[in-house]
Design goal:
29% of the residues lie in helices and 6% in strands. With 699 residues, the protein is mainly alpha-helical. One of its GO terms (biological process) is response to oxidative stress.
Length: 699
C-alpha cells in the first residue's frame, strides 16, 4: 500500500501513462453452503428462437488483465490462465447437452423441469444454459468480461452507478410494494446463477475483510471484484477499495461438450419455468425433504399456533445467525431468507399449499399422500401463473402490449398455444439486464401496518434484516408486513435507487455494505452481453452512430453523463442504457427492455407444456376448474394465509383508493375447490403417479 493520498494518486497516474490504461480503466457472489446439495458472428445475429444456444469445452477460467485503483498496485497479467479440469466433486456435467433417461407421459411436472418438452427433454431444466438473443461480446471472444470497442477497459461499475443512478427517494403513485416483491419472486422462480451469491459471506473471497483488494496470486481465478474509484462519494471516506464479486459459473467451467460455439454460457441451477421451484425445489431430493409424507402436506414448524417453514439443519449456511435459537427457514430456494418481504411470500405460498392440501384430503379421502401433494402442487402453480401473468404482468409491461404479443388473452376458454418448438429457456438478457431494472422499485424501509392501515411501529430498515428473518415472527409482524406489502407504495420505476441497496446492501452489521446497481453492471460485463446499441437495433430502434442519436429515448442530461463515462456509444452496457430510457406509455419500462421482457414472457408461456390454460393433454384442468383458478389473486393469497388478516383491497398490487377500497376478506373472490371432487368409482395409480382422474362439474 502506498503512503499518502497525493503520492498514491501520482503513482496511479504514472502507472496509467506507462501502461496506456486510461484513468477510468479497470477490469476487475459465491456458492452458499447449504443443508444439502441442490441440483438444480455479428452482434446483430440472433440465435434461432427454436434452438438452444449450446456450447462448451474444457474448463477455462478467465481473470482480469489488471486489477488496480488509486489505492492498489497495478499487477500485469504476465501468465495467461491455464486450461484446467475443475468439475464439481470431480464429476463432468453435460449442461443439458444430453438426456440419458426416457420421458414418460406424466400428469405432473418433474421437479427439475426435464421432460416438459418431450422432443427436447432438457429444455427449461435445472442446471442448463441460459438462452440468448444476440451472440455474446466477451473481451477475448471466449469468456473475458466485456471491453470497450477501443480495446480499453470499460468505466468502473461503481463509478457508473453513483454517476447515473443516484440515491433519491421517489415513490410510485399507483403500485404497492407487493408489485415489486412479486417481481423478485418471479425472477427467483425462473433463474439463479450457478456459483455466485452476494447475500451471505463469500466462500470465495476477492477482497480482504477490511475491503482491500487481495493480491492476485492469493485470489480465486473467478474473482472479478468491483473496484472503488478514488473519487467515490461514500467509500472514499472508509478504507474500502473493493466490493466482493465472483464471476458466474459457465459451461466451460463445467467441462461441457462444445457443439455450436466456443464462447462461454452461464448456467442456472433452478428450472427455467414458472413452476414455483423456489417453493417445491428444483430436484427430487430437495422436494422430498420438504414434504411431510402425510395427506399431501409440506413440512412446517408450528410456533404460536401458526405454520412456519421448517428449520434447516445448517442455519449458518442460509441465514446470518448468532445463536442456534435464531429463526431461519428451509424452503425450495436458498435465497428465501434474503429479505423480510421475500420471506413473507415464501411463507404465504407454503401455507397456501397446506391449506389446499387439507381441503383436497377432506374432499377426496381415498386419495393417497402422493396424489394430494401433486394435485395441490398443480393448483398452487396454476394460481401463481395466473397471478403473475394476468394480474402482475399488465401493470409492468402494459395491458395492450401483452395482448398484442399474444402473452395474455381475453377468454373464458382454454388458450392452447403450447408450441413444442419454442425453447422456454430464460434469456441471459432478461435475467442479467432487463428484469434487474426493477431493482429501482425496492424500498429501503418496510412499514408495519395494522388492520386499519395505520403504522403500528417504526418501519424496519431493510439492511438490518438481510438474511435475518426472525423479525417476521415477532409482535404480529407476519400480518403487519403482509399488510405493508399491500399498502406501502413501491419506489418509482426510474434511474434512482434507494441507498439501502446501493450503499448498505448485505452489510450484515457492518457500517457499509455493497452496491446492487454496481453489481448489476458488473454482472452484465461478466456475462458478456452485447451493447445497449446492439439491442436497440435488435428491437427495431435506430442504431446510434453518435451520442445525440440516443435522444429519442434518453434525456440530454443522461446522454452527457454517458459520454463522460464511455469512450463510444457502442460501449454502453445494456443494463445501463436500457435503464435510462423513458418508459413506453402504459408500461414501466423503455422500448429496449420492453422488447426483451415481452420476448421472455412469451417463451415462458408458450414453451410450457404444463401451462395452466392448455387443454390438449391429461395435464389439463377441466373448464370449470380453470374458471376457478382465474379467481386467484394476490389479495386472496394474503387473506387466506396471513395470521389474522380481515381486510384487503381487491387489487393487491395497486394502492388502496376509492376505486380499489378495502373489503372484508370473505367478500373477495376465491377458488372453489369443490370442483376437484373426484367422483370416479375407483382410481388406478402406479409408482410413476400417472393416475387418470375424471372430474365432474359440481352438482
Amino acid at each position: 500500500m502506498l503512503g499518502g493520498k497525493a503520492s498514491r494518486l501520482a503513482w496511479f497516474l504514472l502507472v496509467a501513462v506507462v501502461f496506456d490504461l486510461g484513468i477510468t480503466a479497470v477490469h476487475a457472489e459465491s456458492s452458499k453452503a447449504s443443508r444439502r446439495t441442490r441440483e438444480r458472428g455479428s452482434s446483430k445475429r440472433r440465435f434461432d428462437d427454436l434452438e438452444s444456444a449450446e456450447s462448451s469445452y474444457g474448463s477455462f477460467f478467465g481473470y482480469p488483465n489488471s486489477v488496480f485503483n488509486e489505492y492498489s498496485l497495478f499487477i500485469p497479467n504476465s501468465n495467461p490462465p491455464a486450461l484446467c479440469r475443475a468439475y464439481p466433486n470431480g464429476q463432468r456435467t453435460n449442461c443439458g447437452d444430453a438426456f440419458n433417461n426416457q420421458c414418460r407421459t406424466n400428469r405432473y411436472r418433474t421437479f427439475d423441469g426435464s421432460c416438459n418438452n418431450l422432443n427436447n427433454p432438457m429444455w427449461g431444466a435445472a442446471n442448463t444454459r441460459y438462452g440468448r438473443l444476440l451472440l455474446p461480446k466477451y473481451g477475448d471472444g471466449i469468456q473475458a468480461p466485456t471491453r470497450s470497442v477501443t480495446g480499453s477497459e470499460l468505466p468502473l461499475s461503481r463509478l457508473v452507478s453513483f454517476t447515473l443512478f443516484p440515491s433519491v427517494t421517489v415513490k410510485d403513485n399507483r403500485l404497492t410494494l407487493a408489485a415489486m416483491q412479486w417481481g423478485q419472486f418471479i425472477t427467483h422462480d425462473m433463474a439463479m446463477i450457478d456459483g455466485s451469491t452476494q447475500s451471505k459471506k463469500h466462500v470465495t473471497q476477492c477482497c480482504t475483510d477490511d475491503g482491500c483488494l487481495l493480491r492476485r496470486d492469493l485470489s480465486d481465478p473467478k474473482c472479478y471484484p468491483i473496484v472503488i474509484p478514488y473519487n467515490d462519494p461514500v467509500y472514499r471516506k472508509s478504507t474500502i477499495e473493493c466490493l466482493e464479486f465472483v464471476r458466474s459459473v459457465t459451461d466451460l467451467d463445467r467441462g461441457c461438450n462444445s457443439r455450436y460455439k466456443s464462447a462461454a454460457e452461464q448456467l442456472t441451477v433452478v428450472t427455467h419455468y414458472l413452476d414455483l421451484s423456489l417453493v417445491y425445489g428444483s430436484n427430487q431430493q430437495v422436494a422430498n425433504n420438504l414434504r411431510l409424507g402425510i395427506a399431501g402436506r409440506m413440512r412446517v414448524d408450528v410456533r404460536s399456533n401458526r405454520e412456519w417453514p421448517p428449520t434447516p439443519a445448517n442455519k449458518s449456511a442460509l441465514c446470518d445467525v448468532e445463536s442456534s435459537s435464531d429463526v431461519c427457514y428451509d424452503t425450495g430456494d436458498v435465497r428465501a431468507n434474503q429479505n423480510p418481504q421475500l420471506t413473507v411470500l415464501h411463507i404465504l405460498l407454503l401455507r397456501e399449499h397446506n391449506r389446499i392440501a387439507g381441503k383436497l384430503a377432506r374432499l377426496n379421502p381415498h386419495w393417497s399422500d402422493e396424489t394430494i401433494y401433486q394435485e395441490t402442487r398443480r393448483i398452487v402453480i396454476a394460481e401463481h401463473q395466473h397471478i403473475s401473468y394476468y394480474e402482475w404482468l399488465p401493470l409492468f409491461l402494459g395491458s395492450k402490449q401483452t395482448r398484442e404479443s399474444k402473452i395474455l388473452y381475453d377468454t373464458n376458454d382454454y388458450v392452447n398455444d403450447y408450441n413444442p418448438r419454442v425453447d422456454p429457456s430464460v434469456l441471459n438478457e432478461h435475467s442479467t439486464a432487463a428484469f434487474r431494472y426493477f431493482h429501482s422499485l425496492i424500498a429501503g424501509f418496510l412499514k408495519l401496518i395494522g388492520e386499519q392501515r395505520g403504522s403500528v411501529s417504526p418501519p424496519l430498515r431493510l439492511s438490518d434484516h438481510f438474511n435475518r428473518p426472525a423479525v417476521i415472527e415477532q409482535d404480529g409482524n407476519m400480518d403487519h408486513l403482509t399488510r405493508g406489502l399491500s399498502y406501502q407504495p413501491e419506489m418509482a420505476s426510474d434511474q434512482y435507487f434507494d441507498e439501502e441497496i446501493t450503499i448498505y446492501l448485505f452489510r450484515n452489521g457492518r457500517r457499509l455494505g455493497s452496491d446492487l446497481r454496481a453489481t448489476d453492471i458488473q454482472r452484465n460485463r461478466d456475462h458478456g452481453l452485447a451493447s445497449y446499441n446492439d439491442y436497440r437495433e435488435y428491437c427495431h430502434l435506430p442504431r446510434a452512430n453518435n451520442w445525440n442519436d440516443f435522444k429519442d429515448y434518453i434525456s440530454e442530461e443522461n446522454i452527457q453523463k454517458l459520454a463522460s463515462l464511455y469512450a463510444h456509444p457502442d460501449d454502453v452496457d445494456l443494463t445501463v442504457g436500457g435503464s435510462l430510457e423513458r418508459d413506453v406509455p402504459g408500461t414501466l419500462v423503455g422500448p429496449t427492455f420492453l422488447c426483451i421482457l415481452l420476448e421472455q414472457f412469451y417463451r415462458t408461456r408458450v414453451g410450457d407444456r404444463f401451462w395452466y390454460e392448455n387443454s390438449n393433454q391429461d395435464t389439463a384442468f377441466t373448464k370449470e376448474q380453470l374458471n376457478e383458478i382465474r379467481k386467484a389473486s394476490i389479495s386472496r393469497l394474503f387473506c387466506d394465509n396471513g395470521d389474522n388478516i380481515e381486510l384487503m383491497q381487491p387489487k393487491g398490487f395497486e394502492l388502496v383508493s376509492d376505486r380499489n377500497p378495502l373489503y372484508k376478506c370473505q367478500n373477495l373472490p376465491s377458488v372453489d375447490l369443490s370442483f376437484w371432487k373426484d367422483y370416479a368409482q375407483e382410481t388406478r395409480s402406479n409408482e410413476d403417479h400417472q393416475t387418470h382422474y375424471v372430474y365432474y362439474k359440481k352438482k
